[in-house]
């Protein structure tokens, strides 16, 4: 992979295409219903058992104010690693891992304020699709992280 390329994982959420740097992803799990925790933040769906530890599961649909997660048969949990902490995010579908040239990443326009621009690294045009490149490292604020871990 050339130095100006990035390997991304493309997935769907709210019927839109999203992506993240594959370096932020530990693995992709089949969906399992999390155990609900009382008084957890609204976007925390619950926890699951993962590699002999407890993995918090986050609903990006709730986090981004899209409403409830869609109950699709292709639903997956992406395990995100962030320093020594891990959490899972629920996505509707996982499509592919793809190498892209960094030059394809465009700065997100001001209209993307509906999802805080801190989460968005940029937009990628792939064929007829626009893929929103998320920065999973910034999905949780410090306060949110402290309430979860």
UniProtKB/TrEMBL annotation:
<feature type="domain" description="CheW-like">
    <location>
        <begin position="5"/>
        <end position="145"/>
    </location>
</feature>
<dbReference type="GO" id="GO:0007165">
    <property type="term" value="P:signal transduction"/>
</dbReference>
<protein>
    <submittedName>
        <fullName>Purine-binding chemotaxis protein CheW</fullName>
    </submittedName>
</protein>
<dbReference type="Pfam" id="PF01584">
    <property type="entry name" value="CheW"/>
</dbReference>
<dbReference type="InterPro" id="IPR002545">
    <property type="entry name" value="CheW-lke_dom"/>
</dbReference>
<dbReference type="GO" id="GO:0005829">
    <property type="term" value="C:cytosol"/>
</dbReference>
<dbReference type="InterPro" id="IPR036061">
    <property type="entry name" value="CheW-like_dom_sf"/>
</dbReference>
<dbReference type="GO" id="GO:0006935">
    <property type="term" value="P:chemotaxis"/>
</dbReference>
<dbReference type="InterPro" id="IPR039315">
    <property type="entry name" value="CheW"/>
</dbReference>
